[in-house]
Amino acid sequence: MGLYKLMDSSELRKKLLDFFKEKGHTIIPGAPLIPENDPTVLFTTAGMHPLVPFLLGEKHPAGKRLANVQKCIRTGDIDEVGDDVHLTFFEMLGNWSLGDYFKKEAIEWSFEFLIKWLKIPLGKLAVSCFLGDKDAPKDTESAKIWQGLGISKERIVFLPKKDNWWGPAGKTGPCGPDTEMFFWAPSDAVVPKHFDSEDKRWVEIWNDVLMGYVKNEKEEYLEAPQKNVDTGMGLERVLAVLCGYNNVYDTDLFSLIIKKIEEITEKEYKGENVKAFRIIADHLKAATFILAEGIEPSNIEQGYILRRLIRRAVRYAKQLGVKDIFSFKIAEAVIKIYKNAYPELFKNKDFVYNQLIKEEERFEETLERGLREFKSQTAGLKSKTIPGKIVFDLYQSYGFPLELTKEMAKEERLLIDEAGFNKEFQKHQDISRVGAEQKFKGGLADHSETVTKYHTATHLLLAALRQALGDHVFQKGSNITGERLRFDFSHSSKMTPEEIKKTEEIINKKIKEGLKIEQEEMSLEEAKKQGAMGVFGEKYGKKVKVYTISNFSKEICGGPHVSNTSELGKFKIIKEESSSSGVRRIKAVLK
Length: 591
Ligand code: ATP
Ligand code: MG
Description:
Distance between the termini: 63 Å
CATH topology of the largest domain: BirA Bifunctional Protein, domain 2
Mean pLDDT: 90
Oligomer: single chain
CATH class of the largest domain: Alpha Beta
Helix content: 25-40%
Bound molecules: adenosine-5'-triphosphate, magnesium ion
Structural class: alpha+beta
Number of strands: 18
CATH architecture of the largest domain: 2-Layer Sandwich
Strand content: 15-25%
Largest sheet: 9 strands, mixed
Radius of gyration: 25 Å
Low-confidence stretches: 429-445, 536-540
């Protein structure tokens, strides 16, 4: 029995949504983990992530007050996993105001929910507010609101931009200070009178971002014409707090998984085993959710992250003495826990289990040989650093993800040459894997100007390819970085130099014509009727956005896009190659 009130995860999800419904919010569905219209990041990292276009001023069909539960993956937190509160997969409960209420309501409602609805003791709460700097003043307004509600002065700290400021998502755009709520986690230690944000026993549970500013091209922070609120609360952390646990693994979102690992390893979840248990539980939970969205382990993009999560978990299990294939059994426990909240897990369970079994088998095949190779390579080393070439060979020939080698090196008191490893990657001209390596660090969508231009260029490219090659051309994938666009499409033969030239010419002509990009919202049926192209099929919600470029291109897409093709410069295809059977890949740049 918890300290305050026994509550399980489904009750907490429901409570938050009920609360914000009562405050006039529309409950919107969570987005998939794999961003639908944003090829610049690998995973959804926060509830606000799928809402960026609306925070930027676009109208949301569900209104100005929204709330939801969002599944998130933060690969950037992977090194923290094993502590009490950081996970790679977690759920974020959030509420938003799109130019509606601001600081006062946001803070008062956070307080009301925590204190009145969840009955968290006021004495265990502390908050942080923005300290102020040359760009924006100290947020005394928020601090005063907290004080008015009963938070004592000693429990409010002011912190600089690196702690208490969000955004903008790209170089320019909405941003602003945030105010964060912390809970004193230990049940056996007296709550200090003063809040010390450096003391890890104060755990951040909720963050209210108060987007009152816009940063412009000149790096000035101006008052925003539309002021937004974006909040995010960690479900696992709050649940632990409510049940009186000092870590998230004791909650009902993990206990079944931990029990399963005890069964499989025939070891107890305590002492020196704790960290390995937690890593196995966290990583295989994340892997289960990624698999359930149809991603397979591979060497690129999300598939590579998935592979790394599975293999790291398997290696920890091996260290605990596990001999047989086991990860699918953990997935069974995960699906049991989440099958009501996330029906896609149960629906895709066979795919999830099969993929886990296959990946474990594949890893098994090379693991022993790889370990031997690692030993022989490191035995003869003169320096304390393993050269990038060796790390890359382990990766390439034995399927050892980077951090696996890093961890094995650490156990031998060695370092790895990560920069050298990355260089080897580049040598092998596998830009996408390096890209995944960078994106692995997580982070928010890049809505910079260049990326926006590439989004629009992608639409022109699809339309031009259909003119140059025929109506059998459909989009099969797309990936955009600040340097180039990559586009996969259905076509079975290598493009001739003439076809490439023709495609470029069509696009550059459309750029010269200075065509307007128009956006309209409509039902999926209507969009299909109008002949709009779309690649994501049933993943779309009921209302979709359609971008039209004169009578040349019409596509269902989430944006963002430039407003006129004349902004794009000159389009050039730098590479045309095979991607997989029947699918070609183009890399192109704007100059
Ligand atoms: P922390 O400083 O603890 O890493 P954060 O500043 O990264 O947290 P936010 O980006 O503000 O957190 O996310 C909002 C909320 O989501 C946090 O208050 C927390 O409750 C939860 N959260 C963030 N990261 C994680 C994680 N890795 N695992 C579990 N919950 C998390
Ligand atoms: Mg963090």
